[in-house]
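Internal QA ticket QA-208
Title: Verify multi-chain structure generation after dependency bump
Assignee: T.L.

Test input:
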Amino acid sequence: MPQSQPPTNRSQIHSLGREFFARDPRRVARALLGKVLVREETGSARLTARVVEVEAYLGEEDPAAHAASGRTARNSVIFGPPGHAYVYFIYGNHYCLNVSCEREGKAGCVLFRALEPLSGIEEMARARGIELSGPQNLPKLTSGPGRLSEAFGITRTRDNDCDLTSPASSLWLGDDGYRARGIAVTPRIGITKAMNHPLRYILERNRFVSGKIKPK
DNA sequence: TTATGGATTAGCT
DNA sequence: GCTAATCCATAAA
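Actual output:
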């Protein structure tokens, strides 16, 4: 099964500029596949993981988006400048990470649904409370929006509105030179409105994509 | 002030 | 396959 390779010691990760996010969430979502989410804090191992599954949420015209009911205290980040983290708490248990898109004043974001762990795997397992008994457990670390947030220690208090374009932030997004190939588009998962729009983007045949494997 | 249900997950049948 | 867990933003009153 084809897997992307971890970066070597020499591989550089460079941050994505503000302009990367200042466009339609559908374009940002597609472009984010293959990019790298980085968590780094002094005194802790650096965590990195590749983006393999995302969903686009549009503006106030998208009934499934949090922006649908207009700007509120909770969702104000997605109306703000592009490239910032929108973190919300769901089902009493889980945080979900998004990045704001579009120019300031216009709503739109991309939800991170699954990552492929690259470095800091032991730390992610500890954060998830999982014993790593082999590679078959790896997807349990970061396959699913709630899981990846837990693996990266993402909470609303800590990370909401964090600038994901800046390597000075403890959480940011970068490009390590990997080029995504084989992108598939499907309807979004877990929503009850606007369910039939193709707004979920995945790396085909990547084992870290969330959800059941469709028999073929 | 109270009620409702959700961009989920884990554990059980 | 089914559902409990568990919080809080939002809507309704």
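Spot checks passed. Residues 55, 57, 64-66, 88, 90-94, 96, 98, 111, 113, 144-147, 188-192 of chain A lie near DNA strand B (CB under 10 Å from a C1').
Status: verified.
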